Amino acid sequence: MARLRRDVASEGRAIYRHWQPSLERTAFAAGALNLAHYLALRRRDLRPLQRDLMRHGLSSLGRLEGRVLATLDAVGGTLETLAGRAPAEGLGWPPAPRRFFRGEAGLRRNATELFGPPPEAREGRILVTLPSEAADEPALMRDLVRRGMDLVRINCAHDDAGLWSRMAANARAAGAAEGRQIRVLMDIAGPKIRTGAVRLPSDERRLQPGDTLVLRPGPPLQEGPGQGFEAECVPAAILDRMAPGTAVAINDGKITAQVEALLPGGAALLRILRTKPGGAPLRPEKGLNLPGTDLGLDPLTPKDLKDLDTVVSLADMVGYSFVQDAADVARLQAELAHRRPADWRRIGIVAKIETLRAVRNLPDILVQAAGRQPFGVMIARGDLAVEIGFARLAEIQEEMLWLCEAAHVPVIWATQVLETLVKSGLPTRGEMTDAAMAARAECVMLNKGPHVGEAVEALDGLLRRMAGHQSKKTPHLRALQSWKSVGGAAVPQA
C-alpha cells in the first residue's frame, strides 16, 4: 500500500504537470489532480490487493473515484495501526472529513454551477428535449416544470432562431412562475453523415446479409432496372476515409457492412454483414457510422457557426456534438470567445461523447473544457452503441461515469431513457431498471414525445427513491421496510 500510494502520487503529479497549461480555472485544479491520480491508479490491476484488504475488513478501493489519495491514505494509516506502528508523519490519518469528502463536495458544486440547484430530496436533475410546439404553448412548459423538469434541451438541428428564442423564454418564465430556475441547453447539430438519394433493385427488395451496396459521392447512377443497391454518401469526403475492411453501420446500426473494394470515381463497394431477420430497407437521410475511423470532419459546420450567433445570447450551456479531442473543444471555446469576449467562460459546455475516439481522448477533453469554464459530459448512448458495439456499451458507460467522477465533472445520462413511456404512456420493465441506474448521473435526459409529462413525473419519483439507496457507486444502507416479519415473527423496527 505504501508503494502504491507513493507511485500513484508521483505518476499523477507528472500527468497533472502536463495538463497545467490548460488549467486557467482554479476551481478545477483539485478535480484535475484527482483525475491524474485516478488514471495513474487504474493503470494497475488491483484485484489481488483488493481481496487482501477485504479479508482485513478494510476498504477494497472500489469507490475511491472522487478521492484517490485520501482513500489510499486512510487505508494505509489503518494498516500501519494494525501493524502496531504509528501512521507515517504527515499522512493525516484518519483523513479529516473535509479532505476525505472534498471530491463529493466539488462534484456537487460543479453540477450546481452547470445545471442549477437540484430540487429538494433529489440530487439528479431531469432534462427534457423540447418539441417545436413548446415555442407557442407556455402551458406545456408550466406542466413539465410542475411535474419535475429542471432543464430544457433545444436541438438546433430542428426549427429556427425565432422558435428557439420563444422556447427559451417560455422555459424561464415557467420556472419563475414556480419559483425555480430552469437552465437552457442548446445542442448545435454538428456534421451529419448520412445517406442521400438511394437506388433500389427493380424488385425493390430489402437489404439482406450477403448483398452488396455501392456508396457514391453523388446521386446513384441511373442505368435502368436491376442494377442493385446504391446510395449517395453525404458528405462525399467520407468516402476518402474508407479502405477495404472499413466497418460501416447504417441507420443506427440496423444494417452493418464492410468495405469490400474501392471503385472508380470515388465510390465504395460494401458487403452487407448483418440486418434484422427479413432484411432492412435502404432509405435516404439515414445515419452512416464508420466505427473506429477518423473521419477528419470539422465538428463545427457552417450552420453551427451561424447558429452560435443565436445560441450565445440564449443558452446557459452549449451541447457539442461530434467532439473528438481536446483540439475540438478549443475550437468551440475560440468561437465562444469571439462572440462573447467579456464573459464567454460563463457559458457551460456539454460534450456529447459518441465515438470511440472521443472515449479514448476523454481525459484531455475534460481538462481542456473544465479547465476554462463550467463543463459536463453527455453519454450519448445512441451513436456510442453503434460506434463501439452494443456488447461494450454498458462497460464503456460505466468507465465514463468513473472518469468523470474522478474529475468532479457532472454527467448527463442520455438516449432512450423511458422511451416507451414517453411514446406510448407505458414503460417496459427493462427501461425502468435503466432509469434507476441513471440515478448515478447528475442529470438524466428524456426525449420529446406525447407522454413526456408522465415520464418526467415517473422519473422524478424514481430518482427521489433511488437517492435514499445509492449515491454514485456507494450504497446507502437505510432501513428497509419491505420485510417486516421473518418466519412469522415481527422484526423490531428502528
Offer a quick outline of the entry.
The chain has 494 residues and is α/β, with parallel strands linked by helices.
Main features:
494 residues; alpha/beta; TIM Barrel; M1 Pyruvate Kinase, Domain 3; 3 domains; seven-stranded mixed β-sheet; 17 helices
Q: Which residue ranges are poorly predicted, with pLDDT under 50 across at least 5 consecutive positions?
A: none
Give the overall shape.
Answer: globular
Strand content: 15-25%
Mean pLDDT: 92
Q: Identify the CATH architecture of the largest domain.
A: Alpha-Beta Barrel
Number of strands: 19
Figure out the total of helices: 17
Report on the biggest sheet.
8 strands, parallel, barrel
Number of domains: 3
Q: Which structural class should the secondary elements be placed in? A: alpha/beta
Q: What fraction, in percent, of the residue positions are helical? A: 25-40%
Strand order of the main beta sheet, please? 1-2-3-11-12-13-14-15
CATH class of the largest domain: Alpha Beta
Instruction: Let me know the CATH homologous superfamily of the largest domain.
Output: Phosphoenolpyruvate-binding domains
Cα-to-Cα separation, first versus last residue: 39 Å
CATH topology of the largest domain: TIM Barrel
What is Rg? 25 Å
